[in-house]
């Protein structure tokens, strides 16, 4: 069995479901008539569904003349059947031509024998004694021995239907279904063994990275995939930017990228770096990702180098990230005409961490809300108003925020274009795609690729139904501005062409709009990329269509360009196995991750250690203490 393949038993169409108990010795050396032949039973993975595993496995052995596809199926069927019936088997013969097993209980008469049919790979049962003299199957019978392989056999099929099973849940189900009590550590190790059977070796998966790199670029020309190792061939980082993502970002997305990081569930030290954009409907659009051995400035710089080599656009890009990940120098060096904004969500987290004082949760929530208002404020007046509110609650918080470089996060002075997206929380949506279960690195990378492939196809199909020239999100936002514009008055300037004053009906608010410059003194037009209510009032007043004054990224045409190029599937069935066609470059895994994980093994004392003998303080005798002394009792 290959490391990455699960052993399965397949039921041929028309397999008999009626089981006739065999209570005596059945032997036969001649082939049974076709109408009596029993093929592999319905104990296959694909028929489990909501059925109890035990009930399914009870049908793995049906009697004489049962046929199996190969020797692996025979062994697996015998193991599963014995487990479901509540006894342990011992293989007497177990080779490529014959398999025989008996009940492990001393003196028990239960036996089964299957052998290979000549000139075929099929096996058939030739002998079957289905009588136990050991009490198997009764309430008094001892449960099967819980070996790691036995636990893995059960867990393997449960993981197929419920990949996020926890060891505690697995132990509970096995106890309820099979009567086998497991410690947490046994369930955890059985789960690890099952995962390795299903997914393959975690260590060997790193050796497949050169193959995966070539495969991704072969099936998706124009993609950028980079593998980097240390001098001793230890894995350091693996970067992926699919051609579809590159094309979509450059032709349909706003020049805005969110950079973020997260830990990966893995046996080995692994972290995920991501570059995520936003499409014209405010949906996340993955541009690139990388698995690295650790989070540091060097790995981030390398990631940005690969990202720069992927993109051909000369347009300035605005990056948004956590200010603590040391990206400032790398962005300035590699993307010289770009801008770097700080994530306000992470800034507020930092503020609360540094803030002293017994603040209630309600006060904390108000502080954070005012900080977000300060970040979104389009004018200095709006910013200072929010800051004054913060100062009235906590002068310490006010001082901290002023020292946090507002020029990198406050709308009224930030020079880049964030389209009012002030938090990298957008990128966190990417994490919903990241596999929650632990898996080898090749499967991990390809799972993310598949998610992006599915996203691109789904949104492409979705946009084909749109009839508006703008995306649904812009339709919604612009309609709100159009409604607000109905209560505004427009006055044309007598001295400046294309410049207008806009007031509300009470004359209390006055803004200046320049149609040719796409600007309004409220600055919302600039920050959002579509006309504010003041601009809408002017445009409608002079007979122009507000939709003509929206950033191109909000158009249905741009959205369809974003998702025009598909990601092609990558077949993994022909992946090389160890020693057969592996790329000459060998990749060693990084250091093992130290997890709180499963409990440590119980300490086994060194046999050479001599225990200090007990002595009784009452009778002075050896071998007992005063609590168990019988001399003076």
Automatic annotation (TrEMBL):
Record carries keyword Hydrolase: no
PROSITE patterns found in the cross-reference section: ZF_SWIM (PS50966)
Residues of the SWIM-type domain: 511-543
Gene Ontology molecular-function annotations: zinc ion binding
Keywords: Metal-binding, Zinc, Zinc-finger
Protein name: SWIM-type domain-containing protein
């Amino acid at each position: 069995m290959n490391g990455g393949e699960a052993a399965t038993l397949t039921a041929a169409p028309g397999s008999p479901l009626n089981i006739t108990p065999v209570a005596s010795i059945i032997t036969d050396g001649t082939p049974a008539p076709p109408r009596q032949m029993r093929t592999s039973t319905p104990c296959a993975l694909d028929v489990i569904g909501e059925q109890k595993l035990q009930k399914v496995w009870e049908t793995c052995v049906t009697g004489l003349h049962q046929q199996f596809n190969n020797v692996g199926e025979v062994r697996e069927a015998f193991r599963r059947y014995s487990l479901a019936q509540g006894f342990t088997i011992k293989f007497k013969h177990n080779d490529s031509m014959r398999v025989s097993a008996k009940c492990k209980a001393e003196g028990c008469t239960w036996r089964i024998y299957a052998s290979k049919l000549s000139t075929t790979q099929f096996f058939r049962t030739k002998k079957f004694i289905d009588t136990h003299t050991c009490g198997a199957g009764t309430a008094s019978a001892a449960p099967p021995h819980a070996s790691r392989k036995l636990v893995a056999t059960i867990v393997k099929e449960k993981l197929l239907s419920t990949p996020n099973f926890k060891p505690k849940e697995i132990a509970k189900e096995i106890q309820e279904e099979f009567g086998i009590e497991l410690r947490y550590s046994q369930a955890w190790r059985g789960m690890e063994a099952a995962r390795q059977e299903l997914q393959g070796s975690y260590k060997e998966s790193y050796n497949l990275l050169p193959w995966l790199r070539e495969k991704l670029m072969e099936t998706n020309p124009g993609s950028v995939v980079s593998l980097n190792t240390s001098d001793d061939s230890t894995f350091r980082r693996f970067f992926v930017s699919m051609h579809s993502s590159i094309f979509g970002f450059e032709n349909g997305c706003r020049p805005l990228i969110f950079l973020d990081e997260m830990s990966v569930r893995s046996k080995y030290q692994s972290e995920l770096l991501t570059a995520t954009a936003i499409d014209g409907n405010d949906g996340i659009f993955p541009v690139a990702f990388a698995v690295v051995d650790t989070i540091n400035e060097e790995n981030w710089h390398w990631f940005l180098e690969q990202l720069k080599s992927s993109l051909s656009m000369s347009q300035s890009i605005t990056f948004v990230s956590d200010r603590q990940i040391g990206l400032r120098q790398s962005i300035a060096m590699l993307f010289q005409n770009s801008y770097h904004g700080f994530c306000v969500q992470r800034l507020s987290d930092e503020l609360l961490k540094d803030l002293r004082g017994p603040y209630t949760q309600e006060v904390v929530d108000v502080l954070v809300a005012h900080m977000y208002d300060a970040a979104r404020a389009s004018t200095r007046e709006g910013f200072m108003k929010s800051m004054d509110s913060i100062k009235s609650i906590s002068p310490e918080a006010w001082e901290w925020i002023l020292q946090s470089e507002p020029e990198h996060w406050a709308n009224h002075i930030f020079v880049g274009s964030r389209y009012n997206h002030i938090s990298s929380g957008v990128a966190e949506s990417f994490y919903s795609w990241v596999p929650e279960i632990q898996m080898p690195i090749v499967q991990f990378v390809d799972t993310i690729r598949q998610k992006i492939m599915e996203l691109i196809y789904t949104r492409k199909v979705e946009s084909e139904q749109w009839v508006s020239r703008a995306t649904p999100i812009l339709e919604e936002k612009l309609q709100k501005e159009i409604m607000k514009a109905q209560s505004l008055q427009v006055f044309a300037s007598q001295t400046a062409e294309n410049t207008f004053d806009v007031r509300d009906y009470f004359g209390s608010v006055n803004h200046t709009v320049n149609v040719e410059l796409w600007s309004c003194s409220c600055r919302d037009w600039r920050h959002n990329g579509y006309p504010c209510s003041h601009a809408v009032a002017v445009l409608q007043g002079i007979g122009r269509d507000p939709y003509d004054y929206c950033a191109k990224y909000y158009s249905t045409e741009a959205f369809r360009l974003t998702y025009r190029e598909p990601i092609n599937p990558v077949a993994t069935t022909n992946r090389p196995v160890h020693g057969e066609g592996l790329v000459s470059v060998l990749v060693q895994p990084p250091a093992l991750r130290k997890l709180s994980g499963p409990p440590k093994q119980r300490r086994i004392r060194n046999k050479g250690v001599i225990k200090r003998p007990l002595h009784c303080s009452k009778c002075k005798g050896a071998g007992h203490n005063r609590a168990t002394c019988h001399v003076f009792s």
